[in-house]
Amino acid sequence: MEDQRKYGSDAIGVLVMSYGTPESLDQVEAYYTHIRRGKPPTAEQLDDLVRRYEKIVGGFFPLRRNTDRQVEALQATLDREYPDLKFVCYQGLKHAAPFIEDGVRAMAADGITRAVGVVLAPHYSSMSVGGYVKRAQAAAEEVGVAMSFVESYHLHPKLIEALADRVRRALKKFTEVDAEEVKVLFTAHSLPERILQMNDPYPEQLLETSRAVAERTGVTDWQFAWQSAGQTGEKWLGPDVLEELERLHSEEGVDYALVCPIGFVSDHLEVLYDLDIEAQALAGKLGLHLERTEMLNTEPLYMETLADVVRGKVVEAGVGS
């Protein structure tokens, strides 16, 4: 039988993992069902999610393409920065095809026997990145791919500089006041509060990133808030950014606020709807001037961050130098 492998033993696979998003509105139900572990959403739940997507995408659905571009940009960055190492990027999504397992199997089919896994999320949690790693490791063991994993990169200097640059640029949008009068709110996706009993590093890593960005930009009036909590019947981490904006305005007289969603790396539902529509609607009601920082997307400094931590894992294995 003819050998169908595309790559030799020198190739190093890079499994780029992320949450995933449907590619079109007619895929939303299947996507939502997968998130709910096979339990279909109610008609009301589905209508609510579809409505949110419709508000941000209209007749065009660009969200999945954002992640595709990040994988393509990482491949280009690895090729440019480390031409002595043959990296090959594969995509693996948590809740949409190609699933994490699909990405690992594609590597094996192409003849790759060693790989690095990295998640498009800088901060580690056992409930998020830990889950990705567990699935990828199980799939890798099944097909004979030796895989190591980048668990977090939340204080990488290039990541901090990329975020700091976005804060600096966003603060310039407040032309009516000095930057010192703007309250900066760093945010990330909330998780169930029970992670606190698990000594999960997620909250502290987010605070460490927030402090580093604040120090780099000279911002002193800042705090952290959570967003996009799930409706699961259990308590999620707070304070919620919407509740906090309302409190800051009513109790502290804050009229100018900048949201920097450091827990997210691309434009997707939690940013384009939860912040750009929902939070902005609240700000309009309160008479509060609200801005947010641009997302990283394919920012070169972010791509270089990812390339650096991926190469670092290879060096640990004694392959690169």
UniProtKB/TrEMBL annotation:
GO BP, sorted A to Z: heme biosynthetic process
Q: Which GO terms describe its molecular function?
A: ferrochelatase activity; metal ion binding
What SUPFAM superfamilies does the annotation carry? Chelatase
Q: Which PROSITE patterns match?
A: FERROCHELATASE
Reaction catalysed? Fe-coproporphyrin III + 2 H(+) = coproporphyrin III + Fe(2+)
Task: Identify the residues that bind Fe-coproporphyrin III.
Answer: Y19, R36, R52, Y53, Y132
UniProt keyword Kinase, yes or no: no
Q: Any idea which positions bind Fe(2+)?
A: H189, E270
Q: Tell me the keywords, alphabetical order.
A: Cytoplasm, Heme biosynthesis, Iron, Lyase, Metal-binding, Porphyrin biosynthesis
Function of this protein? Involved in coproporphyrin-dependent heme b biosynthesis. Catalyzes the insertion of ferrous iron into coproporphyrin III to form Fe-coproporphyrin III.
Query: What name goes with this protein?
Result: Coproporphyrin III ferrochelatase
Q: Which gene encodes it?
A: cpfC
